[in-house]
Amino acid sequence: MSWSVLGSLSAVPALDRPDLLADPVALALKALDPADAARVGVAEIDPTLADTAAFCEAYGSPLDVSANCVVVAGRRGGDTRYAACLVLATTRADVNGAVRRRIDARRASFAPMDDAVALTGMEYGGITPVGLPEDWPVLVAPEVAAAETVVVGSGIRGSKLAIPGALVASLPGAEVLDDMARAAT
User: Which Gene3D superfamilies does its entry note (predicted)?
Assistant: First the structure.
C-alpha cells in the first residue's frame, strides 16, 4: 500500500482506528469488500492543520496528491440537490459549469457549512467522499480517479485518509466527471 502520500505521518489501516473516523466513514469502510477497505490508510493529525495547505506544509504531503471534497447545493425551482465534488488541491471544481449541469440545477454554489455538516454527519474541514448520503452523486475529477493514492479527509479534522484514486471512483454514487476541475487561480 502506498500511503507515503501522507508525508511524514505513519498510517495504519483505517478500520484499525475507528476513533479517527467519523461514524458515516467507518460504516462505509466496513461495507466495502475487506480487500478494498484494507487499502485505505488513516493517520492522526493536529486538527488545527486539517486545511489542505497547512496540512501539506506541516507534514510534507505533496499538494498534487491531496484532494478536496466540497459539498455543492444546486437549486431548480424549490428543489435543492446536493452533490460532492472531489478535485485535486491544485485545481478547483467548476461548480457553475460542469457540476451545475450534471446536477441539473439553475444555480449552484458551495453548500452552507451548517448544511454540509448536518447532512453528512462529518466535521467541516474533514468532509470526505467516503460515507456520504446514498442519494448524492459523488463527482470525481479524472485526475483524482487516475491517481495511485490521494489524501482526503476522514470525516473529522483530526486525521486524514490515504485512498487509491480508483477506489474513490468506485465508491457508491461516484462518477468521474470530465471537465469538472479547473486550474486554481
Answer: YbaK/aminoacyl-tRNA synthetase-associated domain
* pLDDT, one tens digit for every residue, the chain (185 residues): 679 999 999 999 999 999 999 999 999 999 999 999 999 999 999 999 999 999 999 999 999 999 999 999 999 888 999 999 999 999 999 998 999 999 999 999 999 999 999 999 999 999 999 999 999 999 999 999 999 999 999 999 999 999 999 999 999 999 999 988 888 76
Residue 48 within a domain = yes
Q: How would you write 130-156 as a 3-class SS string?
A: CCCCCCCCEEECHHHHHCCCEEEECCC
Is residue 40 situated within a structural domain? yes
Q: Between vectors from CA 154 to CA 122 and to CA 157, what angle results, nearest 5°?
A: 70
Instruction: List the domain range (segments joined by +) for residue 9.
Output: 4-178
The three-class DSSP label of residue 179 is: coil
CATH number (domain holding residue 171): 3.90.960.10
Give the chain's domain count: 1
Residue 103 lies in a domain: yes
